[in-house]
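User: Hey, my collaborator sent me this sequence without any context and asked if I could get a structure. I don't really work with proteins. Can you help?
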Amino acid sequence: MRCRRPYVYAGTKVLINKLGLTNFDELWNAERAITGVAAAELEEHSVNGSFDLAHLQAIHRALFGEIYDWAGEIRKKGFISKGNSLFCGAEFIIPYSQNLFEALKAENYLRDLERGDFIERMAFYIAEINALHPFREGNGRTQRIFANQLARQAGWELNFKAVSPERLYEAYISSMVDMSDLIDLLNDTVSPKEN
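Assistant: No problem. I've predicted the 3D structure and written it out in structure-token form, which is a compact way to encode the shape of the chain:
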């Protein structure tokens, strides 16, 4: 099928995919199943990286590579939004991410922080990576795996499964202007990593 926009089949909102699915619900179900398996594999075998944009891209590629040709690629045009949230313009993703991930490195990747300090700084980085939204689809799933890997190397565990998807979604959205819901959510999900 010919593409009217760079990511969707002409006349639809269905993302062009390697599975050849042109029905939104069928693609949604297939995507959830495939990325669910990939996410479980990433829990066991983390993607190696330096907690930077390239690392985020590698996680996205591992999650979505069986579904989309553009898995792991930075979106190329304009802005995307969800609800009332407008995410970073495509042309600003790379320069902004360089500053963001350099700041994370300067903070020693959140290592050696007390729990409260870790939660506050982790909320900041989750909110900023969410605002970045570098991919056309799959940002939230990619961000959560990245955050889990970041937390583990800093000596903490994040249990996002302990909160409802609705609460997680609302905390991510509200973090665009106020991190208090995200901090509360992290307070309910962060525990010391068991050795």
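In plain terms: The radius of gyration is 17 Å. You can pass these tokens on to your collaborator as they are.
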